[in-house]
From TrEMBL:
The keyword Metal-binding does not apply. SUPFAM superfamilies: NAD(P)-binding Rossmann-fold domains. Keywords: NADP, Oxidoreductase. Belongs to the short-chain dehydrogenases/reductases (SDR) family. It comes from the Eukaryota. This is Carbonyl reductase 1. PANTHER family: CARBONYL REDUCTASE 1-RELATED, CARBONYL REDUCTASE [NADPH] 1. GO terms for molecular function: carbonyl reductase (NADPH) activity.
């Protein structure tokens, strides 16, 4: 749940922007560019960012998923496409190493669950999902 951990370590102002139900893709790109610039200038923590580039990228992916889900609802509702961000948890991979508690098969459970939702499912949509459950963004 690195995206939530990183979000909680953002300033209240940044949290409000990232949690906005009306944030646009352009606004998100602007925030991501600001993080890069603030980090480059060594002021990212003073400007309210967490000290985790990985965490900020996860925030960006989650927010972008929410934006695209909102756009699908507005422009392609009849297609019944559900779009969510999901966290597989801490999975043993070459990147994370053997200490991670989940096997790759266990990490695949939530993404597969979402991919196999019935065609008449109405949700979840535009959410962050982990352990097959929606978590509050």
């Amino acid at each position: 749940m690195e995206s939530l951990r990183a979000l909680k370590n953002c300033s209240p102002e940044l949290q409000q922007q990232f949690r906005s139900d009306t944030i646009s893709e352009e606004e998100l790109v602007g925030l991501m560019n600001k993080f890069v610039e603030d980090t480059r200038n060594g002021v990212h923590q003073r400007e309210g960012w967490p000290n985790s580039t990985y965490g900020v990228t996860k925030i960006g992916i989650t927010v972008l998923s929410r934006i695209h889900a909102r756009n699908l609802s507005a422009h392609r509702r009849e297609d019944k496409i559900l779009l969510n961000a999901c966290c597989p948890g801490w999975v043993r991979t070459d990147l994370t190493g053997p200490q991670a508690p989940k096997s790759p098969e266990e990490g695949a459970e939530t993404p597969v669950f979402l991919a196999l939702l019935p065609s008449d499912a109405e949700g979840p949509h535009g959410q962050l999902v982990t352990e097959k459950k929606v978590v509050k963004w």
